[in-house]
Amino acid sequence: MEAAKKGLSHRSLPVWTRTKYSQLLASNSFEPGTLQLNPTSYKAARETILQSIESANEVVQNLRIKDGAFFSEIPSEAQRRFVHIEREITRLRQPNLTVAFVGGFSAGKSSLVNAFLGRYLLPESTEVTTAVPTFIRSTGEKEFARLSYLSKAEVETLEELYRESFANKFKQPELANMPTQELLEQVRPQTSEGKGKNLLQYFEVFLEEKKRRDLPDRGLTKDCSLEEMAIHVRDEKEAMFLDRVEVFVNAPDIPSDVQLVDLPGISVPNPRHERLTYRFVTQDAHALIFVLRSTQLFNQDELDILERIRSGESSISDKTFWVLNRWDALSEQQQAETLIGFQERMKEYSIPDSYVMVKTNALHGLLSQLAIRGVQPNDAKLKTHQQEYEKELPHRYGGDHRTAFKESEIDDLQREVLDYLNNRIRSTTLRSAVDNSQQNLVQPLLHHLSQKKRHDEQLVHGALENEQAADTRTRTEMRYESRKSELMKCFKSLRDGIAVSRGEQFADGEDHISIQLRAEIDSGNSTDAYEVYKSIIADNRLRTFPYYFEIEMKVVDGLNSVLKSEFQKLVRQHVSDALENLTNVIRDELEKLKSDVNFDAAVTQGLGQVLAGSRDMVLNKVDGIVEQKAGQLDSLLVYKSKGFFAFFGGGNEIIDGLEGAARMFATELKDVRQEIKPEHMEEKTKKIRETLSTHYMQHVETFGEDVRNSVWPIVINEMHDLEKKLLGELSREYRTLLEKSVQGEVEIEYGSRRGELEARSKRFRQAIETLQESTSTMQQALSQTKAETTA
């Protein structure tokens, strides 16, 4: 450190500088004059470390693309820190080391730069506060400045930035794309109270100058003298079209690969310059000199800059110098309170106590140096400042320019900054790049990669198999229960349909049978006594006359045969239709089962047999019901004597009527000499038909109702039995085949998943190895530079 070289006691320095100085002296890695890392060694190490950090960043980008799901599981705070890797890459890519002067509006950055350099280089003005970024580099040749102007495309971009600024400031997104005249008309009334007033004024000037200027398609550069540079920078109309100003001066204390940058103030009315300031703070600068107004310490813009400086930075106390400007504007009480506030703010933002801070009046620091060297200012503005300084010199500094310079603490800032630039900026830049990349990306990413890799391997080698077996069981059960439920719903729907419509099932058929029977009773041969008589005699070779009641019973038996036959056909048809519908619906449901078991026909063989056998069984039972009910009708019409019916409380109308018909012409029928003619039996026929027409048809209706009431419950009951049998068969054959099918299906899925996990585990292993290798390479590069600096 320069203080040590000159034999100055560190106690003669301000408390903040003494703290830093003592820590460096106590450090094992610090010996005055032995920490310098030459530019050649720095370049080699920088390129090695940059390549390693880029390699780590490439790992991040590849993982982000190929393993987005993995990234989404990483906590958002960690992901936000990953972004800081771009800052380190940007810094290391720059061949020159940059020290940026940053601060709020009118904080005195330009004055501080001049005081730091000990010369009036950058123009002083209350109206223009560094309108354009100014880069200062040391040269051993003639001093000059280089002005770089915006291209036509860059000017168009600047106009878009102005529009975005209006949209953000007034929270009106539509302003960004509004035609210029409408935009101005919309904004002007809103700036009447001062909000956005400067922005509007600069925008209007910009628009006028843009029309007036002949904008180049490509950016132009122009070299000029330092005096001409000051004129151009003071001209705000021209300055807003400048991209940058580069100043080459004779400053041998500043290393050749270091450049100082005087940045535009925070919240300047030029949005391009404002963005540039933030970019340098967050990315480009290798060190910062943060200039604060003592009278208004840390406004919101400055706190925003502080947060950006601190975020993800491990060496903030090494790389940031704090300057409290216009310190003498405070009373002693205010100074004490300001120091306490500054200390609290540093603690709040976790800034280590080893930071460097100076309290100054930058303008007096400059003027005192000029006076000591006997330099008279030529700038009118500076002359005014000198006159004011000369008036204060006697009572504030005892008339001594050296005292003024000492109390400005500019010499302390020069020593600290130059010592840093000459001895530590290169090693600090490399070390902080490694530390920041490790802390912000490599170590957190290694942790999450390793954790996920272990989890994936545990899945592949154990948990995944159990999960696969459980998934197979779950899917099998769910699909089985689903098919079972669908089958049960089908049966219920079919049964409900029969139950609701069973009263209407035989209606048309019964009417047809009734009409057929009534026609037969009214005029058919089977109810004609003479025709029946002839058939009886003709069918019996030894018979000469029918026995008593035989004709009447023959008539009724014929009607019963017709009734039974027709009803049997009717019932069979309807039941068959119902069963056919049932069979078709159920077969459709059973067909679905095939798709569940890779269309294995075995799954429906047993079910189909149960279904086919059930149809024949139901029809046989239905035939039995018809026979049973017809038998009851037959027994009702069997002839019994009067005494028999009397014993049971009376006879029935059919038998009574038929018995009356039997008595008619009975004697004549038994007389073999009597010739039987049709007219002899007309009365008998009439009596038979009357009896049957009046009473038999009533029993036909009762018979039909009995059949209906008996048949459909049997069908419904059989459907219940069929459902039970099918479900039983389902639980055996189908479930077994289903489990095999699901097992194969799940095996494919889990095989694919297992392959994906194994492939991801391999990618993670390669990523981990790359990160570990990059870490090792960076540490080796740091070790090499440390060996070179201590050699």
Features:
791 residues; nine-stranded mixed beta sheet; 28 helices; 9 strands; 69% helix
What can you see in these coordinates?
The chain is of the alpha/beta class. The protein has 28 helices and 9 strands. A 9-stranded mixed β-sheet has the order 4-3-5-2-6-1-7-8-9, sandwiched between helices. β8 (320-325), α16 and β9 (356-359) form a beta-alpha-beta unit. α3 packs parallel to α20 (410-501). The model is unreliable at 1-34 and 641-651 (pLDDT under 50).
The main pleated sheet reads as: 9 strands, mixed
Computed Rg: 56 Å
What is the distance, rounded to the nearest whole angstrom, between the alpha carbons of the first and last residues? 18 Å
Strand content: 5-15%
Number of helices: 28
Strand order across the largest sheet: 4-3-5-2-6-1-7-8-9
User: Overall pLDDT, averaged?
Assistant: 83
Report helical residue fraction.
Answer: 55-70%
Count the beta strands. Answer: 9
How does the helix and strand content classify structurally?
alpha/beta
Low-confidence runs (pLDDT<50, min 5 residues)?
1-34, 641-651
Shape: rod-shaped
Outline of the structure:
This protein has 791 residues and is of the alpha/beta class.
Map the helices and strands.
Elements: H1 2-5, H2 15-26, H3 39-66, H4 68-73, H5 76-82, H6 84-93, E1 97-103, H7 109-117, E2 134-138, E3 144-149, H8 152-169, H9 180-187, H10 197-212, E4 221-224, H11 226-234, H12 236-239, E5 242-249, E6 258-262, H13 271-284, E7 287-293, H14 300-310, H15 316-319, E8 320-325, H16 332-348, E9 356-359, H17 362-372, H18 380-397, H19 401-408, H20 410-501, H21 507-523, H22 529-539, H23 550-596, H24 602-636, H25 642-647, H26 653-663, H27 666-670, H28 682-790
Helix pairs in contact: 3-6, 3-20, 3-28, 5-20, 6-20, 7-17, 7-20, 8-10, 17-19, 20-23, 20-28, 21-23, 21-28, 22-23, 23-24, 23-26, 23-28, 24-28, 26-28
